[in-house]
Amino acid sequence: MLQQAHVALEANQRELASLARVDPLTGIANRLVFEESLRREFKRAQRLRGLLAVAVLDLDQFKQFNLAHGAAAGDAALKRVAGLLSDRFKRDTDLVARLGGEEFAVLLPGLDAALAQGLLDGLREDWRALQAEEG
To answer: Does the annotation mark 102 as catalytic?
Structure first.
């Protein structure tokens, strides 16, 4: 009986640790994970004289969208953005995170600014296409 309680407690602790690192709405990494990863990757890039691209994305006029369409539609939009980012940036070293509200960040180790900008331009086009399909 005591062993079962111990196993259950360990499982709960693992679940809580996971929840503390994942954005509950979108299922992607949260700000804490992003900040830890950014520090680690920045130090690695300095040490190895490597490249590191960081993109911070903010959804324009999101508050007005939420007011006009409701919180459920806003949540659905945030989930779509998170899914699009996760689909676009899926190398093992990439990190997609929700910083809070309508702010997202992408950590792209090994990429220079020009390559990262090209990927982000493609992301913008993907987002426009997704909006056109739904609109």
So the answer is: yes
